[in-house]
Amino acid sequence: MEDLIYLDNAATAWPKPPNVYEFAIDFYRKTGVNPGRSGFDMAIEAGNIIEDLRVRLTKFFGGDENVPERLCFSYNATDALNLIIPGLLVSGDHVISTNVEHNSVIRPINCMVRDQGVEATYVPFNKQGYVDPDDIKYALKPNTKLVIVNHGSNVLGTVQPLKEIGQICRDKGVLFAIDSSQTAGVVPIDMKDMNIDVLAFTGHKSLMGFTGIGGLCVREHLEIKQIRAGGTGVRSAYPYHLAEYPFRMEYGTPNMIGVASLLAGQDFIEEEGMANIHAREMKLARKLVEGFRQIDGVIIYCWENFDNRLSTVTINIEGMEAGDVGIMLDVDFDVATRTGLHCAPLVHEQLGLIPVHGGVRFSVGAFNVESDIDTAIEAVKEIAGRVKR
């Protein structure tokens, strides 16, 4: 494990910053109780932690700072998207999404199409891996209710033009939602400037939190239908789930160690500087891509340029299954990647990679170093050299 070169940060950022481990564990030892349910000091302190994080993340995402209670917590982005999509769409509505989406968007939409009479359109990406905002505009219909876009592709690393898409949605009176799972923490997001109505986030990637924490940030003008019910810790005699935020979108006991990890993650991002983190990751990604370009038989997908990108690189080696390459990287070289379809089947379908079972994804994180990249390049070179051509 000590020799492992971890290049699967698009799945989960690892390791976490030291301050995240220290703060979260210390908090949970001293204040790991239920917030907002009791009046004793520990419960009040736990409640203060969660409310402080609402304020910080609302500002971080460019949400409406006068209503931080509209920053609501969930298990992860998938959980948040399963509140957003069924909470906004009804029978007869049309939704537009894209081929760069993760299954956390694709599957809830498809279930709404199958079960609720919703209509859906998926817009393809271009040869460089970007969605053309005009394609969104041309896909609009009189009954289009929602456009939902993955900000950063977990396969291609491309960052989509949210501001342009958001302006089209605003001009046409269509709601605009985004999945920020890959971008939150490395790429600036301003919901007001980008005309984003609701944003889903996860904590365990570049926000540097633990697994099992995520949420949604809802603009002041938007109401999402409440589709679950349960305990809130307040107004217990009321027979229905509460309509006001954050209770409207939150159910039961929150993941407080996850909340604490996210709060400490905000400290790390502010101290390091988000632009600095992204620049370091992209420097290593550039080195990785340029190294792969020198290897015969390596195919790199949608990396013609280095602009508007994340540090995620997907490749294949001609004549080899992606899964086999991943096993060799792990067993022979201690390089951890992810192979397969990456929960993003429409990307691989458009690229024609379903027959070869997807690709091999290398995703650089905040704690990778140049020697990690050197080893990965040499490993791919050696594996590619095993193929007879």
Name a few traits of the molecule.
single chain, 389 residues, alpha/beta, Aspartate Aminotransferase, domain 1, Aspartate Aminotransferase, domain 2, 2 domains, 4-stranded antiparallel sheet, 11 helices, 13 strands, PyrdxlP-dep_Trfase_small
Word description of this protein:
By secondary structure, the protein is of the alpha/beta class. The chain has two domains: 5-16 and 273-384, Alpha-Beta Complex (Aspartate Aminotransferase, domain 1); 18-271, Type I PLP-dependent aspartate aminotransferase-like (Major domain) (Aspartate Aminotransferase, domain 2). It contains eleven helices and 13 strands. It has a seven-stranded mixed β-sheet with strand order 2-8-7-6-5-3-4, with helices on both faces. A four-stranded antiparallel β-sheet has the order 9-10-13-12, covered by helices on one side. Strands 1-11 form a two-stranded parallel sheet. The longest helix has 20 residues, at 41-60. It is globular and about 75 Å long. The model has no long low-confidence stretch (mean pLDDT 95).
